[in-house]
Amino acid sequence: MPEVAQHHDGYPKYRRMVRFDWSETPIHWVPGDPFSTHMMNVLHLLLPEGERHFIKAVLEASSLVDDPELEASIKPFIQQESWHAWAHQVVLDHLAEQGIDTKPYTDRLGRTLSVTLGDPPKFFPPPLKRWWLYRRLADVAALEHFTAVLGQWVLQNRGLDYARTDPVMLDLLRWHGAEEVEHRSLVFDVYQHVCGNYFIRAFAMLMTAPLFVGWWIAGARYLMANDPTIDQKWRFRDWLRAAREYKLPGPWNFLVTVPLRYMRPSHHPSHEANTQMAIDYLEHSPAARAARERAGSPSRQITTATEMEGAGVR
User: Fold this and answer.
1) 13 falls in which pLDDT band (50, 70, 90)?
2) pLDDT number for residue 1
3) C-beta of residue 11 within 8 angstroms of C-beta of residue 278
4) Which of 22, 29, 141, 302 is the most exposed place for a label (fewest CB within 10 A)?
């Protein structure tokens, strides 16, 4: 049985305040495979910056939401995303200790996202400012589609287990992936509620998919070029090899299959991924179990805003 019954498939209930100890995690946490390690490490670069903008866009749209169930789910979504950003930021600190300075890449990414997902130009009249919010929400919904697909992939795929991946890093990836699956419908439904224009949504995916893949490849190239322990360049054939070994999702998925599914007019995130699989993993995740114990009981989690504030969560 799930630890808390889902009030809506694809909406979050609460945030799990997980923590991870990186002291024993090696620089190449997929043993003998720097390429797969750094391809997955790019998530630590992309997600803290991206999720801060996700939070801001959804928070600004919340004033336009008048559906009680949808409105009630916005706060736990924001709390989950803020904790994701924090958890991945800690990994960046760990990479810096191992000799990989990620700041030049993340600074450049942050400047780009501030333009595309930030506030509208001040000279925009109110109708254009409203359109700008709709476009930002559509971009975030498209990116949340990718994170949900990634989350389902890491939950059900066993290639990283067979490769003897560092268990702490694998738990972080699966905890985060499970929460992305859990809240996969929230941003899409906010967008549909406040705007719902199919052409804005479709155009957002057409623009977002190549940019997402481009930033991912650029991040992997950066990490491999700045890893002091290897003399190896990023190669596309290594991605194909890692995908065959089930260590990475394949490039075809990100460039074609995943965007095309999202482009269907009838698409809804509830058709993607499996909420029960996510909840089952979160029930047994070492980090999530430890978070429940810190919350005061091995079988319950912080579930209300009052309890969260009492625990020091803002």
Assistant:
1) confident
2) 26
3) no
4) 22
How sure is the predictor about 5, in pLDDT bands with cuts at 50, 70 and 90?
Answer: very low
Q: What value does the mean pLDDT take over residues 111-133? A: 94
Per the CB < 8 A criterion, the answer to whether 116 and 58 are in contact is no
The average pLDDT across 71-94 equals 94
- Dihedral (CA of 235, 175, 253, 115) sign: negative
Question: Which residue reads 């995690």 in tokens?
Answer: 25
Torsion of the alpha carbons at 177, 179, 184 and 188, rounded to the nearest 10: -120
pLDDT of 305 above 60: no
* Residue 2 burial by Cβ neighbours in a 10 Å radius (0-12, 13-18, 19+): middle
Question: Quick one: residue 195, left, alpha or beta (phi over 0 = left, psi -120 to 50 = alpha)?
Answer: alpha
3-class SS at 106?
A: helix
**177-195 burial string, b = 16+ CB within 10 Å, else e?**
bbbbbbbbbbbbbbbbbbb
Give the least confident one: 18-32, 191-205, 282-296. Answer: 282-296
pTM recorded for the entire structure: 0.89
- Whether the CB-CB separation of 13 and 7 falls below 8 Å is answered with yes
Exposed e or buried b per residue across 56-93, where buried means at least 16 C-beta atoms within 10 angstroms of its C-beta: bbbeebbeebeeeebeebbbbbbbbbbbbbebbeebbe
Could you give the CA distance from residue 132 to residue 137 in angstroms, rounded to a whole number? 9
Cα–Cα dist 46/212, whole Å:
9
Q: What does each C-alpha distance from 265 to 6, 107, 190, 202, 252 come to in angstroms?
A: 26, 36, 16, 9, 21
